[in-house]
Design brief:
The complex is a heterodimer of chains A (327) and B (383). Helices cover 79% and strands 1% of the residues of chain A. By secondary structure, chain A is mostly helical. Among the domains of chain A are: 1-35, no CATH class; 40-169, no CATH class. In chain A, helix 6 (136-153) runs antiparallel to helix 7 (156-169). Chain B starts with 5 loop residues before the first helix and ends with a helix. In chain B, 36% of the residues are buried. Among the domains of chain B are: 304-341, no CATH class; 347-383, no CATH class. Chain B contains 16 helices and one strand. In chain B, helix 8 (181-199) packs antiparallel against helix 9 (209-225) and helix 11 (253-274) packs antiparallel against helix 12. Chain B is globular. Strand 1 of chain A pairs parallel with strand 1 (332-333) of chain B.
Chain lengths: 327, 383
């Protein structure tokens, strides 16, 4: 707590908005001089786990001839099992609501277990191909383990791995880097796959909400779904079958607009508007090109600043409306 | 100097910290709502997504204005200088108008100010054709924006312009012997740091919270990178034509080696002593860069073992510190702060985990799967 907070508490008390007890509580808390390094230390633990699993990954790759494959695969399996075994020992009883480990560090043990399982399935598949020639099944297995770990141990990171892996199963790369490089999809069919996966995630999110099944995971499903459908539609609208994706984009915007109001999520709301705005712009450009009128193009260029000014005003209004309804 | 209505600016700071108090459950939601009705605030966006969305919209608007004006100007002959001056005027007029209409840290004002600075740079460059004057012009313009509109990014632009100017004058006009550039930049960082310490005691420093943090951040980064061995050696080779013969090294290499590690440690110690979070993060980052610096020249152990051993050492030492700090109820502690429960690092974790360890599309071949070994190797280099 900084000095500004204490000053504000004093002013609020002077204006009789807060009570003296509130002010005393604030002053007492500030006098403790708390400097929490909670997140920093956990981040370091997290980095160490990533370094460890990356290092082990490279070691395996380089020593593939020296050590027997079976031994390596066995060791990885053993390590992953150990992670889950200890997590099981410490985890609270399963509940549909949010649960917490007594010690937050176990969240990272679960994550390490999930990552090691991913390595295990990938390596096993590469070496012995027990699941046929396709790697899709290996990522499907990773995804299943991820979902299981996420729901049993209430772990968001594992859930995030699981969703990314299930996208990989279908051939979509949704790692942040791929999104940055616009390398999410291999071909046009993937746009439909992306939309389909998005819809599946929405259905699962709705189901979870209705049945109170780990409700706190729901925003993650909607977030993934929104971006998957959004990116698929934008990419699809640049291609040939743009009319179909325009319709999907409009439907998704309508759905997420309603959803963001229901769940009072500002992030969901903003991205709904952003994707809808991009969609509208592409559709407008498409229509102007279709019309084939050169004069119209020039008129549009001259009108563009006013178009954006109007967009800004509309955006300000919609944000204000959203804030008014939900704050 | 400040363009905003002082009372409303005071109210904005008050309501922002009241929101923190509400998040920390010191006051109730109803009390917070009551405070909001009593104290009218500036129009500001604390939600980063909304702010970015406004920034993008504002930039679209500004660039479409640029397009229209360019069409008008170029149809009347080649008038690029006049065009850029008019664009700069539009930018500053928009920034002033937004400030008068109580838009503060909103996204739209960011777009206007960034557009203004770009236009000033372009205008000076077109009119004078001198890099030094571009740096001076943009530096002054951004300093004015930082002071008048309390704009954080402008502080970074100002510092960048000054540092750029020092470098430019050294290499082009040999104002100081090139070899002393690192020392001059280090002194510049010290001056910035002392300036920050002075400004923060000023009565109106409360308004400049974020710009001052940016100033401190710049001073810490310049202070480190001006004497980092990797930066100094590469600069000596690229810009001064210095050649490092096998068995030889750059002059005063020992000093730079020591500073490469000493400064991050100094930052970390100082951060813990003064409870300075920005310095703590900068210290961690620069310490990671110090390790990268050494590994850049000396492959003491292979990468994979460095990662494994580094991971184990980092993990064990973090666990040790966590055990020591757990349950402490005052001062430095592992317990969560009721007030500033930053979500930034949790979000970073969620992003990093996705770039890591996922088997990939089959057609891309065997390098793409097999855990973090091949897809997320970059993660290890940072620390």
């Amino acid at each position: 707590m900084d000095i500004q907070n204490e000053k504000s508490a004093e002013i609020l008390f002077e204006k009789q908005i807060t009570t003296q007890d509130d002010l005393i509580a604030v002053k007492a808390y500030r006098s403790l001089g708390i400097f929490s390094v909670h997140h920093e230390l956990l981040f370091l633990v997290y980095l160490s786990i990533l370094m460890l699993s990356t290092g082990i990954g490279i070691l395996i790759y380089e020593n593939i001839d020296a050590i027997g494959h079976t031994i390596l695969i066995g060791l990885i399996l053993l390590a992953a099992t150990a992670c889950f075994y200890f997590s099981f020992k410490k985890t609270p009883k399963y509940s549909n609501t949010e649960t917490f480990f007594g010690n937050v560090l176990f969240n990272y043990v679960v994550l390490l277990g999930t990552l090691l399982s991913a390595t295990f399935f990938g390596y096993l598949q590469f070496q012995y191909t027990p699941l046929g020639n396709s790697f899709a099944l290996a990522s499907l297995m990773t995804s299943l383990i991820g979902f299981a770990a996420a729901y049993r141990f209430d772990n968001r990171s594992a859930l995030s791995v699981a969703i990314t892996a299930i996208a990989a199963t279908l051939g979509i790369t949704v790692t942040p880097r791929a999104v940055m490089d616009l390398d999410v999809f291999e071909n046009d069919v993937m746009f439909y796959t992306g939309v389909a996966l998005g819809i599946m995630l929405i259905i699962w999110g709705e189901y979870s909400e209705k049945t109170d099944l780990k409700k706190h995971f729901v925003p993650l499903f909607y977030g993934f779904a929104q971006h998957l459908i959004g990116i698929s539609c934008v990419a699809g609208m640049i291609g040939d079958s743009w009319a179909i994706f325009l319709v999907i984009s409009a439907a998704s915007a309508a759905y997420f607009y309603r959803k963001s109001h229901q769940s009072e999520s500002a992030a969901l709301f903003v991205f709904t508007i952003v994707y809808a705005f991009i969609g509208c712009n592409i559709a407008l450009v498409r229509l102007i090109i279709l019309s084939g009128a050169d004069d119209l193009v020039w008129l549009c260029i001259y009108m563009a600043p006013f178009f954006y000014l109007a967009a800004i005003v509309l955006f300000i209004r919609s944000i204000r409306k959203f804030n008014k309804e939900h704050k | 100097m400040i363009a905003f209505d002082r009372t409303m600016l005071d109210n904005t700071l008050l309501i922002e910290s009241a929101e923190d108090l509400k998040d920390g459950k010191f006051i109730t939601n109803d009390q917070f709502k009551a405070a909001k009705t009593v104290f009218p605030t500036l129009k500001t966006q604390r939600n980063i997504f909304i702010r970015i969305a406004f920034l993008l919209l504002g930039s679209f608007c500004y660039s479409s204005c640029t397009g229209v004006l360019a069409l008008i100007f170029f149809s009347a002959g080649d008038n690029a200088e006049a065009l850029s001056v008019i664009l700069a005027l539009i930018g500053i007029a928009a920034a002033e108008m937004l400030a008068r209409n109580h838009f503060y840290a909103h996204g739209l004002d960011d777009a206007a100010i960034i557009g203004f600075l770009l236009a000033v740079g372009t205008a000076v460059s077109l009119i004078t054709d001198s890099t030094a004057l571009v740096l001076v012009g943009t530096g002054i313009a951004s300093a004015v924006c930082a002071l008048r509109y309390l704009h954080t990014l402008s502080v970074i632009v100002t510092v960048g312009c000054i540092a750029g100017l020092i470098g430019y004058l050294t290499f082009e006009f040999h104002l100081i012997p090139e070899f002393y550039l690192t020392i001059v930049l280090f002194l510049f960082a010290v001056v910035l740091f002392l300036a920050h310490r002075t400004f923060i005691r000023h009565p109106s420093s409360g308004y400049y919270k974020w710009p001052l943090l940016a100033l401190e951040f710049c001073s810490l980064l310049i202070g480190y990178f001006s004497v980092n061995y990797l930066v100094v050696r590469e600069l000596a080779q690229d810009m001064m034509g210095f050649e490092v013969v096998p068995g030889g090294d750059i002059p005063m290499a020992g000093l730079f080696y020591i500073l490469t590690f000493a400064i991050p440690i100094l930052y970390l110690v100082f951060a813990v002593k003064t409870k300075n979070r920005l310095m703590l993060w900068t210290g961690l980052f620069t310490f990671g860069f110090a390790i990268f610096t050494i590994r850049f020249y000396y492959h003491v152990i292979p990468t994979e073992w460095a990662l494994v051993i580094g991971g184990i050492v980092l993990g064990i030492s973090s666990l040790f510190v966590i055990r020591r700090l757990k349950g402490k109820e005052s001062g430095i502690t592992f317990e969560k702060d009721r007030m500033h429960d930053s979500k930034a690092l949790s979000i970073a974790q969620a992003v990093i985990v996705n770039s890591h360890a996922i088997q990939n599309v089959p057609s891309k071949g065997p390098m793409e799967f097999g855990g973090g070994g091949f897809s997320g190797g970059g993660a290890g280099e940072n620390f």
